[in-house]
Amino acid sequence: RLRRFSLAADVVLAVVSYGLASVVFSLFHDYEFSIALRPFDWGVLVAIFAITATFLWLGLYKLEAYVSRPLHFTTLAKGSLIALVITAFVTFAFKAPGVTDSRLTIFTAFVVFFVLDSFVRIRFLDHIYRADIKARPGGTLVIGASVDGSVIVSRCRELRGFAPVHGVEPLDRRRNGFDAEPALLEALAHAELAPRQVFLDAASLGHKAMFDLIAAAMALGAEVYVTGRLVSPLDTTGLLVRLFEMPVMRVRRVPSPGERLPSTKRVFDVAAAGLALVLLTPVFAIVALLVKHDSPGPVFYRQKRVGMNGRTFELLKFRSMTVGNDAGEHRDYVCRLIEAGSVDPPLSLVAPAGSSTVDSRSAGFPSAADVLFCTDEWGRPVYKLAEDERVTGIGHFLRKYSLDELPQFWNVFRGEMSMVGPRPALDYEVAAYKPWHRRRLEVAPGVSGLWQIAGRSRVGFDEMVFQDVMYSYNQSLLTDVSICLRTVPAMLVGRGAA
After folding, report:
1. Per-residue pLDDT tens for 41-50?
2. Contacts with 304 (C-beta within 8 Å, 6 or more apart), sequence order
């Protein structure tokens, strides 16, 4: 409701402000103002688009924009200034009628708009937010035991609409693959009042437990937030990190198994993939010549992959390996990586104090040496197969900068993939999945995704699955555009690529 009213107010006030600016122009220039006689000024349409697009990008149509009045006001000022610059550039460049008469019209319109919009939002629409708070007196529940959880507790006590705040610490600190402990689910289900907001600290809760707690909290009608560095790019507006002073993601929805791709996502995929195929034609030609010259064999490599809801398709890539190579080593590595799962070594591999090192092979677990084949230039572990002899000379370059992935835009155009989503899995990967890993198959696979911009080969398999599922919980057109834009510098830098 706040989003609809805020959007309607912005559009109406943009039109009113533009009209008042025209009146001011007529008064100061001794000009008889007449709407009927003046040509239509399309500059007002540019202003409306610039305002709504900028405000959407800054998070001013989110519920959280109304939590802090100072933050709301400063974000309004920032958004109005950016929208002014965009509108002024377009209208000046293409000579809108209002600008032709007076260049001060645009500036006057935005000054009037900022004053009116600030008054309407902070004075009137704020009542809707406060009324909603009074109608749901449950407060906030913070589940976690790390420093991040403590910061959230103290921050929520300072903000409007989050009190009273209660914290619950998990007793089971096992990180991944375990169900949420019953005590935490009981704290949610049997609270005296159903909480308005629930914060889940990803630093102290296992990934599988997080999914269980999200489902339980949303069943109560609570707004669910997840904290942690792995989900920080999903706060595409930056509003939440400014509000809570740490990386926070709000859960928008939980996808149901078997659901279809949203129509807005498909339209974006077709438009973006089609544009990329046209613009990157010279790059395709150059890479094809390099691949053909470097080693004998075809230019493109086709491979069977598992997509959304378990459907298989043929993935298209530039060939980066020699022809006829054996994938057995990679298959064994992937299965060991999935079994190890997390960045943290399995508890079974930690030797008791005063004892000799545990033999992970005899214990039936992959050892750290089995999984961490190499490190990056700073000595940090990189989860990839080191010194893979199958990769060609040009293949190393293509993989480092993800150029071998470019033909997948054709898979997107055909509807087999999306621009943003989890990386499409191999069939032997899926066969090694644990039950909770299969949640990543509920989303269309993508050319880029959260893993590509916030981890790549530096996170373990469980962390990658967690990022993929969290993306599905927060998928939107704005999220997809943001991830696509952030993918370009990640590719150019080439760090952490497998």
Report:
1. 788 899 999 9
2. 312, 313, 314, 315, 426, 427
